[in-house]
Specification:
The complex is a heterotetramer.
Chain A lengths: L8 H23 L5 H29 L2 E4 L10 E4 L4 H25 L5 H20 L3 H20 L7 H31 L4 H11 L3 H18 L7 H8 L2 H26 L5 H27 L4 H22 L2 H32 L10 H4 L1 H15 L5 H16 L2 H27 L4 E2 L2 E2 L7 H19 L2 H18 L1
Antiparallel strand pairs in A: 1-2, 3-4
Helix pairs in contact in A: 1-2, 1-4, 2-3, 2-4, 3-4, 3-10, 3-13, 3-18, 4-5, 4-10, 5-6, 5-10, 6-7, 6-8, 6-9, 8-10, 9-10, 9-12, 10-12, 10-13, 10-19, 11-12, 11-17, 12-13, 12-16, 12-17, 13-15, 13-16, 13-18, 13-19, 15-17, 15-18, 16-17, 16-18
Chain C lengths: L1 H5 L9 H23 L3 H21 L3 H24 L10 H21 L12 H4 L1 H12 L5 H9 L1 H21 L57 H17 L3 H13 L1
Helix pairs in contact in C: 2-3, 3-4, 8-9
Chain D lengths: L1 H6 L10 H33 L3 H27 L3 H30 L14 H4 L4 H4 L2
Helix pairs in contact in D: 2-3, 3-4
Classes of the chains: A mainly alpha, B mainly alpha, C mainly alpha, D mainly alpha.
């Protein structure tokens, strides 16, 4: 009766889209009961590893045979919920699960330092659920299911951010801000989905797209679009809606910050792509003008504004958080260009920035772990006291600036060409100028770390004290990825090209 | 003690009935309005009523806080577990039809729905009680005279 | 008012008495909402929120959404009022007045969102229109399919638990997560949140204590902290590396203390705090 | 109703059509009960508006609400006939009978405990000039 043996390769390949979400959910629920942090950590590590393997299976499957569709509950898609993986979301799945593995590896030490002992098991549970929520948001092909998983990931993220309170009490205010703004964003999103349902009578994304193309443009669709863009904009920290982000990133536990910076905004950006291009009709007038004015122009303003703010920060994490807002601006600019090249560039930037920012935040976490460093003025001499950590930080920082040979250069160059092709010279100028701004704010930190002498306490030089091995492995994994994909960019570019062709294929 | 005599008597009689009503709502959810979510809230309301009338310490003896973490997890496990069982039986995730085969009646669906709703009941009831305990157990900074 | 609602065209199938009840309930909802916004007494606000939920529930009943009404009555009017009250007891009885400048932004957002919805009205299907997409698409399919597929009289339950059971699972996880969050942040006995993270076993805060205070001299590494009884505290790398080395450092510690005169006091308190 | 009448038309003209009488009687009784229940509830609402202080208002609302609701439920039970619905209504009536007075008691008790004194002595209607410019709750003084 129980056909356990059915767990063949074909079965795994078929069920992987669901397994990748359900497994971490179950483990997350289990972790709430586990008091031994080591066991919880091992479980989490194992789960993230399995998820990475599954995501790899999915990616290979998508590359080989195109879209995977999975009807949950055995119901046919318009009735039941559909999981739909194609070239657009498979790489994001891969990204989230791999970053999950790396952050988990890093978490062992950082959680011991930052979270109350008896809470560590449930804390890992919350992390698992946030992880599952992000994966669920990306893998689904059902508009309402997106909302539900958006809530799953958001609520767990609020808790994760608030857990930074044992390090800094301001985490509570930051989490509260995030909660209020995030809830407003989720509400806007669900109102938008409601309008879509009113217009089309279905919640399945493919069905909605079909119905919208039949029914043509109507005011209901426009309002749905507006609500969905604003709702997702809050989640992905689009420029005027980014107010929650600096606080949340600055005060969350360090590995949570790294995980969020690398995945949460990226998943939301994927959703924006999915909605704007494959659900709505990107050739419609209001969407074209929204792309230009809302995404591209606001993206550029955000790039300037957030980069300038980053320059004047004293707290290293806040600085990087503002830089994240600026980088989101790059991605939005790529999306806003609206051509194949533009979307490809935005998508590559999404993947590349995830690695870069993940590595940077992991390094900052290690600096706090060893020396309590949070302010840029304290970076003094860190290159000598923590050479390996600072090395990884430097590599990732260079990638953030966009120096040739790193993944940051690949995406920025693609973005430049796309903008130039479109004839948007103002955008080209903006990209170059904000890259210089990035050089300024990253350079400030690097200068303090490498060129200044190591600090002294009572006349004695501070000893070299490197971060623990597990942390180093995690941050270097990401830093090396930045370089590898920078030197040999075919793989990410290929992925992004596939993704863009999914989008543009839909546009016709 | 004396002042709440009426309340105590009435609620002693009512609280079991509230729980029974919650279970009714749960198992009757297939036929009328209701289901695991509402049932969970009603069961939690019974616990909250108990705490309001007999004091939160007495309530913590009746419903120990240590149950809460377990109840929450059990709920999610029941729900997701139903899906896993459908997997093991060879169906798609949440394909209740494979749970129990009956040629002329979707018996598997009924079984699956009851299991799943039971999971919701557990989670909702325990989480509501958890929130109540979390807030109710803290001593307020302001006294009752400030009203 | 009536003509406004019928104006969208199409056959409006609702009977006038229901419409009157609807309008009356919605009018009361608006009044209560304004009262909630204007009121300063938190107790009254919590109670009014209960009233609001109850009226919502009544309104849902007139819309034939009995399941939703039931949930709204049980959750909104029932238990959340109690929860809000118990939360309010911990804060204050009165809300602080909010300046006009601060309330301008939210007002603008509300007005814009409302205006957007009004903008969409002309293209909306008529209220209760049997031919609207929502009433002809999969929504209607459930009505016919559920009878044979699931054989449950209550279609809402069939959709909720079977057709879209996966959504419900995620909703359950949302509730689970809310509970877990409460456990993590507050604890069930009202004693959570006092633990402090430590850098290498010492209490420092980025603003209150400069980093130099913990940058101890060469050999004085925090691994020398005595192991706390419960594995509570110091974020020291687990001692499995080289116990001997750790011991050696422990032996060296007094010497180091002499060099860094300021250190020991801070360290001792840090250690104690972590052990308790 | 008309159809029923023709259906049970007696063969023998002296026979009384008991079915119809019962039906009409039930309808009348239930209508009467519901209407009187509604009147009680209305009276309670009026009492809440007109009574001078908290306790008398509480009294008006509590007493009439219980009775009015019971009447309405009884009327509905007659309408429902012998079915599952009647049983449910009976249960509702029973719980209402139990909880409504208890709730009134609890509220009144809480008010007394928190120091609200009942107004004693003969009721003096306020002057019309006094009422004007005051909210209704302050008007009765």
């Amino acid at each position: 009766m129980l056909n356990f043996l059915n767990l063949s390769q074909a079965w795994i390949a078929a069920e992987a889209p669901v397994a990748i979400v359900v497994l971490p959910l179950i483990i997350g629920a289990l972790c709430a009961l586990i008091n031994k942090e080591r066991i919880a950590w091992l479980l989490v590590l194992l789960t993230t590893l399995i998820c990475s393997a599954l995501s790899f299976v999915i990616l290979r499957e998508v590359m080989a045979s195109g879209t995977i569709s999975y009807g949950l509950g055995g119901w046919d898609p318009p009735l039941g919920i559909e999981y739909r993986v194609d070239g657009l979301n498979a790489p994001v799945l891969m990204l989230i699960s791999v970053i999950g593995v790396i952050c988990t590896l890093y978490a062992l030490r950082s959680v011991t330092a930052e979270i109350e002992p008896k809470k560590r098991g449930p804390f890992y549970g919350a992390f698992m659920i946030s992880f599952a929520g992000l994966l669920g948001m990306v893998v689904t092909g059902d508009a309402f299911n997106v909302f539900v998983f958006l809530e799953v990931s958001s609520i767990s993220t609020y808790v994760l951010v608030a857990m930074g309170a044992s390090r800094d009490r301001r985490a509570l205010t930051a989490a509260y801000n995030y909660l209020i703004l995030g809830s407003i964003g989720a509400t806007f999103f669900v109102i938008g989905v409601g309008f879509l349902y009113m217009q089309t009578g279905t919640l399945n994304m493919a069905d909605i797209a079909l119905a919208l193309s039949e029914s043509g443009e109507s005011r209901v669709t426009q309002v749905a679009f507006a609500f969905i863009v604003v709702g997702l904009g809050l989640k992905l920290a689009m420029f005027p809606l980014h107010l929650w982000l600096p606080g949340a990133y600055a005060y969350a536990p360090s590995f949570v910050t790294a995980f969020l910076a690398a995945t949460a905004t990226k998943a939301a950006l994927y959703l924006l792509l999915r909605f704007v291009f494959t659900i709505f009709d990107p050739t419609a007038d209001f969407i074209i003008s929204a792309l230009t004015w809302l995404l591209a122009v606001l993206g550029v303003i955000g790039m300037f504004f957030a980069s300038f703010q980053a320059i004047f920060q004293t707290d290293a994490r806040r600085l990087l958080a503002f830089s994240s807002v600026a980088q989101v601006g790059y991605m939005l600019l790529g999306v806003g260009i609206g051509t194949m090249a533009g979307v490809t560039a935005g998508y590559v930037h999404l993947l590349g920035h995830a690695m870069t920012k993940g590595a940077l935040f992991l390094c900052l976490g290690a600096m706090w772990y060893q020396f309590g460093v949070t302010r840029i003025s304290d970076f003094k001499g860190l290159g000598k006291t923590m050479p390996w950590t600072m090395g990884a930080f430097t590599v990732a920082g260079i990638s953030l600036i966009g120096v040739p040979g790193t993944v940051g250069f690949v995406s920025k160059f693609a973005l430049l060409t796309a903008a130039a092709d479109k004839g948007w010279w103002w955008a080209v100028a903006a990209i170059v100028f904000t890259s210089i701004l990035a050089l300024v704010y990253i350079g400030r930190m690097l200068e303090a770390a490498w060129l200044q002498d190591r600090p002294q306490v009572d006349g004695v030089d501070v000893a070299t004290r490197e971060a623990p091995a597990s942390m180093l492995v995690a941050m270097w994994a990401l830093a090396i990825a930045c370089v590898v994909f920078g030197v040999n960019a075919t793989w990410p570019l290929e992925l992004a090209n596939d993704a863009a062709s999914v989008i543009m294929g839909g546009a016709g | 003690m004396n002042s709440h005599l009426i309340l105590r008597t009435v609620s002693k009689f009512l609280i079991p009935l509230i729980v029974v009503y919650g279970l009714y709502v749960h198992f009757h959810g297939d036929f009328g309005p209701g289901g695991g979510f509402q049932a969970g809230v009603i069961v939690a309301a019974a616990v909250v009523l108990y705490a309001l009338i007999f004091g939160i310490d007495a309530c913590k003896v009746a419903v120990p806080p240590s149950w809460i973490r377990i109840g929450m997890t059990v709920g999610v496990m029941l729900f997701a577990g139903t899906g896993v069982v459908t997997w093991l039986l060879g169906g798609a995730f949440f394909d209740y039809d494979v749970l129990k085969y009956d040629p002329d009646h979707p018996a598997g669906q009924h079984l699956g729905i009851i299991c799943v709703e039971l999971g919701v009941l557990f989670t909702v009831a325990t989480v509501m009680v958890a929130i109540f305990y979390a807030f109710g157990s803290r001593t307020p900074d302001i006294s009752d005279e400030d009203w | 008012m009536l003509s406004f609602i019928y104006a969208a065209g199409g056959p409006a199938t609702i009977s006038p008495p229901t419409l009157i009840i609807d309008i009356a309930l919605m009018a009361m909802l608006v009044v209560v909402a304004f009262a909630i916004v204007r009121m300063r007494s938190l107790f009254a606000i919590v109670m009014l929120q209960g009233v609001y939920s109850l009226m919502c529930a009544a309104w849902f009943v007139t819309l034939d959404a009995v399941d939703v009404a039931f949930t709204e009555a049980a959750v909104g009017a029932g238990i959340s009022t109690v929860l809000m009250l118990s939360a309010m007891l911990l804060t204050d009885r009165q809300s602080a007045p909010v300046g006009a400048k601060k309330s301008l932004g939210p007002l603008l957002v509300c007005v814009l969102a409302g205006a957007a919805m009004f903008y969409a009205i002309p293209d909306m299907p008529a209220y209760g229109d049997a031919n609207s997409p929502a009433n002809t698409g999969p929504g209607m399919e459930y009505m016919t399919a559920a009878v044979t597929d699931v054989e449950i009289p209550n279609i809402v339950t069939a959709v909720l638990a079977s057709y879209r059971g996966y959504d419900t699972m995620a909703e359950t996880v949302v509730i689970f997560m809310a509970g877990l969050g409460v456990l993590l942040l507050l604890g069930l006995n009202g004693n959570a949140g006092f633990w402090q993270a430590k850098v290498q076993g010492q209490n420092i805060f980025s603003l209150t204590a400069p980093r130099t205070r913990i940058l101890t001299s060469t050999e004085d590494k925090p691994e020398t902290e005595p192991p706390a009884p419960d594995e509570a505290a110091p974020p020291k790398p687990k001692p499995k590396r080289k116990p001997a080395a750790a011991k050696k450092r422990a032996a060296k510690k007094p010497a180091a203390k002499k060099t860094a005169a300021k250190k020991p006091a801070a360290k001792k308190t840090g250690g104690k705090g972590s052990a308790s | 109703m008309a159809a029923d009448n023709t259906h049970s038309a007696p063969a023998n003209p002296v026979d009384i059509p008991w079915d119809a009488v019962l039906e009409w009687g039930l309808a009348l009784a239930s209508t009467g009960l519901i209407v009187s229940g509604a009147i009680f509830v209305l009276a309670g609402a009026l009492g809440v508006l007109r009574m001078p202080d908290f306790f008398t208002r509480m009294h008006a609302a509590g007493m009439t609400d219980t009775l009015g609701a019971e009447f309405i439920l009884l009327g509905l039970m007659l309408q429902a006939g012998f079915s599952q619905m009647t049983l449910k209504l009976l249960l509702v009536a029973f719980f209402l009978f139990l909880t409504s007075p208890t709730a009134t008691h609890a509220i009144a008790n809480a008010a007394l405990k928190s120091g609200l004194k009942p107004q004693l002595g003969p009721y003096k209607a306020p002057e019309l000039s006094e009422i004007e410019g005051k909210t209704p709750s302050e008007g009765a003084h």
